[in-house]
Design a protein that fits this description.
Ubiquitin-like (UB roll), 434 Repressor (Amino-terminal Domain), 9 helices, 4 strands, 17% strand
Length: 195
Protein backbone atom coordinates (compact mmCIF):
# COMPACT_ATOMS: atom_id res chain seq x y z
CA UNK A 1 0.00 0.00 0.00
CA UNK A 2 1.30 3.41 -0.97
CA UNK A 3 -0.06 6.66 0.33
CA UNK A 4 -0.63 8.79 -2.75
CA UNK A 5 -1.01 11.95 -0.69
CA UNK A 6 -3.94 12.84 -2.94
CA UNK A 7 -7.20 14.22 -1.64
CA UNK A 8 -10.21 12.01 -2.33
CA UNK A 9 -12.21 13.58 -5.19
CA UNK A 10 -15.42 12.04 -3.83
CA UNK A 11 -15.52 13.21 -0.20
CA UNK A 12 -12.75 15.83 -0.49
CA UNK A 13 -11.71 15.03 3.09
CA UNK A 14 -9.73 11.80 3.07
CA UNK A 15 -6.51 10.82 1.38
CA UNK A 16 -6.04 8.01 -1.11
CA UNK A 17 -3.93 4.93 -0.46
CA UNK A 18 -2.90 2.81 -3.44
CA UNK A 19 -3.66 -0.88 -3.20
CA UNK A 20 -3.44 -3.96 -5.36
CA UNK A 21 -5.76 -6.87 -5.13
CA UNK A 22 -6.55 -9.95 -7.13
CA UNK A 23 -9.19 -9.93 -9.81
CA UNK A 24 -10.42 -13.17 -11.34
CA UNK A 25 -10.84 -12.81 -15.10
CA UNK A 26 -11.76 -15.23 -17.87
CA UNK A 27 -10.75 -15.22 -21.52
CA UNK A 28 -11.35 -17.98 -24.08
CA UNK A 29 -12.24 -20.44 -21.34
CA UNK A 30 -9.13 -19.70 -19.25
CA UNK A 31 -9.51 -18.11 -15.83
CA UNK A 32 -6.69 -16.40 -13.97
CA UNK A 33 -6.24 -14.09 -11.05
CA UNK A 34 -4.54 -10.89 -12.24
CA UNK A 35 -3.52 -7.81 -10.27
CA UNK A 36 -6.04 -5.00 -9.94
CA UNK A 37 -4.62 -1.59 -9.02
CA UNK A 38 -6.83 0.98 -7.27
CA UNK A 39 -6.94 3.50 -4.43
CA UNK A 40 -9.02 3.63 -1.27
CA UNK A 41 -9.99 6.77 0.61
CA UNK A 42 -9.04 6.65 4.30
CA UNK A 43 -12.09 8.74 5.18
CA UNK A 44 -15.07 7.60 3.10
CA UNK A 45 -13.68 4.18 2.09
CA UNK A 46 -14.49 4.61 -1.60
CA UNK A 47 -12.42 2.56 -4.02
CA UNK A 48 -11.38 4.32 -7.21
CA UNK A 49 -8.76 4.14 -9.93
CA UNK A 50 -6.73 6.99 -11.32
CA UNK A 51 -5.44 7.12 -14.90
CA UNK A 52 -2.13 5.42 -14.10
CA UNK A 53 -3.85 2.59 -12.21
CA UNK A 54 -6.37 2.12 -15.01
CA UNK A 55 -3.50 1.85 -17.50
CA UNK A 56 -1.74 -0.75 -15.30
CA UNK A 57 -4.98 -2.76 -15.12
CA UNK A 58 -5.42 -2.60 -18.88
CA UNK A 59 -1.84 -3.77 -19.44
CA UNK A 60 -2.25 -6.65 -16.98
CA UNK A 61 -5.39 -7.82 -18.81
CA UNK A 62 -3.77 -7.45 -22.23
CA UNK A 63 -0.74 -9.49 -21.12
CA UNK A 64 -3.08 -12.23 -19.88
CA UNK A 65 -4.83 -12.26 -23.27
CA UNK A 66 -1.51 -12.35 -25.13
CA UNK A 67 -0.47 -15.37 -23.09
CA UNK A 68 -3.71 -17.22 -23.84
CA UNK A 69 -3.48 -16.30 -27.54
CA UNK A 70 0.13 -17.53 -27.67
CA UNK A 71 1.51 -14.13 -28.70
CA UNK A 72 4.89 -12.68 -27.81
CA UNK A 73 4.91 -10.44 -24.75
CA UNK A 74 5.90 -6.80 -24.96
CA UNK A 75 9.18 -7.64 -23.25
CA UNK A 76 9.94 -10.39 -25.78
CA UNK A 77 9.26 -7.99 -28.67
CA UNK A 78 11.57 -5.41 -27.08
CA UNK A 79 14.32 -8.02 -26.65
CA UNK A 80 14.05 -9.08 -30.29
CA UNK A 81 14.08 -5.48 -31.53
CA UNK A 82 17.05 -4.44 -29.40
CA UNK A 83 18.91 -7.59 -30.34
CA UNK A 84 18.74 -6.46 -33.96
CA UNK A 85 19.79 -2.94 -32.96
CA UNK A 86 16.85 -1.19 -34.59
CA UNK A 87 14.56 1.56 -33.29
CA UNK A 88 10.83 1.10 -32.77
CA UNK A 89 10.12 3.61 -35.53
CA UNK A 90 12.41 1.88 -38.04
CA UNK A 91 11.05 -1.55 -37.18
CA UNK A 92 7.56 -0.25 -37.92
CA UNK A 93 8.83 0.91 -41.33
CA UNK A 94 10.17 -2.59 -41.97
CA UNK A 95 7.29 -4.71 -40.64
CA UNK A 96 4.36 -2.27 -40.78
CA UNK A 97 1.81 -1.44 -38.13
CA UNK A 98 2.24 2.33 -38.03
CA UNK A 99 4.95 4.64 -36.68
CA UNK A 100 4.25 4.02 -32.98
CA UNK A 101 3.08 0.40 -33.22
CA UNK A 102 6.16 -1.13 -31.60
CA UNK A 103 6.12 1.38 -28.77
CA UNK A 104 2.56 0.29 -28.02
CA UNK A 105 3.36 -3.43 -28.37
CA UNK A 106 6.35 -3.19 -26.05
CA UNK A 107 4.55 -1.14 -23.39
CA UNK A 108 1.58 -3.48 -23.46
CA UNK A 109 -0.87 -0.81 -24.60
CA UNK A 110 -1.88 -2.74 -27.73
CA UNK A 111 -1.56 -6.37 -28.72
CA UNK A 112 0.01 -7.20 -32.04
CA UNK A 113 -2.06 -9.19 -34.55
CA UNK A 114 -1.39 -12.90 -34.97
CA UNK A 115 0.10 -12.23 -38.41
CA UNK A 116 2.46 -9.53 -37.03
CA UNK A 117 3.45 -11.91 -34.24
CA UNK A 118 4.34 -14.58 -36.81
CA UNK A 119 6.35 -12.08 -38.85
CA UNK A 120 8.34 -11.03 -35.76
CA UNK A 121 8.99 -14.71 -34.96
CA UNK A 122 10.17 -15.36 -38.53
CA UNK A 123 12.60 -12.44 -38.25
CA UNK A 124 13.85 -13.78 -34.93
CA UNK A 125 14.20 -17.32 -36.22
CA UNK A 126 15.66 -16.42 -39.62
CA UNK A 127 17.71 -13.20 -39.35
CA UNK A 128 18.40 -13.24 -43.08
CA UNK A 129 14.65 -12.68 -43.63
CA UNK A 130 14.89 -9.63 -41.38
CA UNK A 131 17.91 -8.38 -43.30
CA UNK A 132 16.05 -8.78 -46.60
CA UNK A 133 13.01 -6.91 -45.25
CA UNK A 134 15.14 -4.01 -44.00
CA UNK A 135 16.78 -3.71 -47.40
CA UNK A 136 13.34 -3.66 -49.06
CA UNK A 137 12.21 -0.90 -46.67
CA UNK A 138 15.45 1.08 -47.12
CA UNK A 139 16.16 0.98 -43.38
CA UNK A 140 19.63 0.83 -41.85
CA UNK A 141 20.24 -1.01 -38.58
CA UNK A 142 23.13 -2.34 -36.51
CA UNK A 143 24.59 -4.89 -38.94
CA UNK A 144 27.20 -6.08 -36.44
CA UNK A 145 24.41 -7.56 -34.32
CA UNK A 146 22.92 -9.17 -37.44
CA UNK A 147 26.24 -10.70 -38.49
CA UNK A 148 26.70 -12.07 -34.97
CA UNK A 149 23.38 -13.90 -35.32
CA UNK A 150 23.93 -15.15 -38.88
CA UNK A 151 27.43 -16.46 -38.18
CA UNK A 152 26.04 -18.99 -35.71
CA UNK A 153 24.98 -22.41 -37.02
CA UNK A 154 21.24 -22.67 -37.64
CA UNK A 155 20.52 -25.02 -34.74
CA UNK A 156 22.18 -22.57 -32.33
CA UNK A 157 20.08 -19.61 -33.52
CA UNK A 158 16.75 -20.88 -32.24
CA UNK A 159 15.89 -17.84 -30.16
CA UNK A 160 17.70 -15.00 -28.51
CA UNK A 161 16.48 -15.80 -25.00
CA UNK A 162 16.13 -19.59 -24.87
CA UNK A 163 15.39 -19.57 -21.15
CA UNK A 164 12.40 -17.28 -21.73
CA UNK A 165 11.20 -18.23 -25.19
CA UNK A 166 10.19 -21.73 -26.19
CA UNK A 167 11.29 -23.01 -29.60
CA UNK A 168 8.07 -23.72 -31.52
CA UNK A 169 9.70 -24.69 -34.81
CA UNK A 170 10.64 -28.22 -35.79
CA UNK A 171 13.68 -29.44 -37.69
CA UNK A 172 11.30 -30.22 -40.59
CA UNK A 173 10.26 -26.54 -40.78
CA UNK A 174 13.92 -25.54 -40.91
CA UNK A 175 14.49 -27.99 -43.75
CA UNK A 176 11.58 -26.56 -45.72
CA UNK A 177 12.78 -22.97 -45.34
CA UNK A 178 16.49 -23.49 -45.87
CA UNK A 179 17.07 -26.87 -47.58
CA UNK A 180 20.84 -26.38 -47.73
CA UNK A 181 21.03 -25.98 -43.96
CA UNK A 182 19.05 -29.15 -43.23
CA UNK A 183 21.89 -30.77 -41.30
CA UNK A 184 22.68 -27.53 -39.42
CA UNK A 185 26.40 -27.82 -40.21
CA UNK A 186 26.60 -24.94 -42.70
CA UNK A 187 26.07 -21.37 -41.72
CA UNK A 188 23.15 -19.58 -43.32
CA UNK A 189 25.23 -17.29 -45.51
CA UNK A 190 26.82 -20.33 -47.20
CA UNK A 191 23.42 -21.94 -47.65
CA UNK A 192 21.96 -18.85 -49.29
CA UNK A 193 24.94 -18.56 -51.66
CA UNK A 194 24.60 -22.23 -52.56
CA UNK A 195 20.86 -21.95 -53.23
Amino acid sequence: MTNLNELCPICTEGHLTEQAGGNEVSYKGETRNIALHFSVCDSCGMEQGNAAQTLKNKREMLEFKRTIDGLLSGEEIREIRTHFGITQFDLAKVLGGGPVAFSKYEKGDVSQSASMDKLIRVCRKFPEAFDWLTKQAGVEYNKSKFLNIVSRPLELRNYFSPAKIQNNYSIEAKQNVLPNCANGNKNTEQAIQAA
